[in-house]
Amino acid sequence: MTEFLATHEPTIRLAVFIGLFGILALSEYLRPRRKLTAPKGSRWFTNAAIVVIDSVVVRLIFPAAAVGVALWAQSNGYGLFNMVDAPLWVAGLVSIVVLDFAVWLSHLLSHKVPMFWRFHRMHHSDTDIDVSTAIRFHPVEIVASMVYKVAWVVALGAPAWSVILFEIILNGVAMFNHANLKLPVWLDRIVRLVVVTPDMHRVHHSTVPRETDSNYGFNFPFWDRMFGTYIAQPSAGHDGMHIGLEEWQDERPQKLGWALSVPLLPLNKD
Q1: Domain around 56
Q2: Strand, coil or helix: 32
Q3: I want to staple 122 with a disulfide (CB 3.0 to 4.6 A). Which of 145, 167, 262, 263 is the partner?
Q4: What pTM value is reported for the model?
């Protein structure tokens, strides 16, 4: 079963991605949380082009992706869970939780380390936030994050099935919490106890520095609560807040060439 999943991992992930993207795009169209400020066509073209470039680059550099590395580590006995006798379900569950923490930590560092921020701010330069923002990451950041993730997978000796499941969950939840989707207040209050909601993550995309420096979680919300980086709501409210980066509140972030050149632009966080 694991080998089947590994062999068909790209197809499985693509099918889930397309399905969830379509569902969330329709949902945010029918029940939008905020009125978008930029033309959707140009934004979506740029964000879609970025994810195509990212996918090609990653497959060229990591043809087997993280799951292939997990199988390699397993066959060579590398990593914690390949050295200890633990039930497979325990190893998988712990691996998913630890990998989620690793992603939270990576996201935090992408804001704190100037060199990392150079690339990550392409994601934050989007002047609106919707399901397409979830796929807007610089190719260099994507490659670096894959190297980082692979290191954690090897160190853990994470079971291949848990790596596949983690990737699917992470991608799906990232699209969900970037969606311009209006949830009932009571439902948001419950869901954000276990999963990062759109209202919770939208705070992170505020132009207010204190709010940008919060809510780093993509999947589980409790890391931010544990480490003091949680902010419940934006100070200006979800309708009044500004999205993106203060220095680029114009049409430039909608352009593909400009977005890819962001790391070369002056860095205000030096």
Answers
A1: 2-264
A2: strand
A3: 262
A4: 0.93
Query: What is the helix (H) or strand (E) element at residue 171, kind and residue range?
Result: helix 160-178
Q: Would 269 be classed as within a structural domain?
A: no
In a domain? residue 270: no
Tally the residues of the chain: 270
- CA dist., res. 126 & res. 128, Å (int): 5
pLDDT tens-digit series, residues 126-180:
999 999 999 999 999 999 999 999 999 999 999 999 999 999 999 999 999 999 9
Asked, for residue 151, whether it belongs to a domain, the answer is yes
What is the token pair recorded at 101? 């923490």
Residues whose CB is less than 8 angstroms from the CB of residue 13 and which lie 6 or more positions away in sequence, other chains included: 164, 167, 168, 171
9 occurs within a structural domain: yes
What band does 80 get if pLDDT is binned at 50, 70 and 90? very high
**Residue of 145, 136, 137, 190 lying closest to 167 (CA atoms):** 145
* pLDDT higher than 70, residue 270: no
The DSSP secondary-structure symbol of 262 reads G
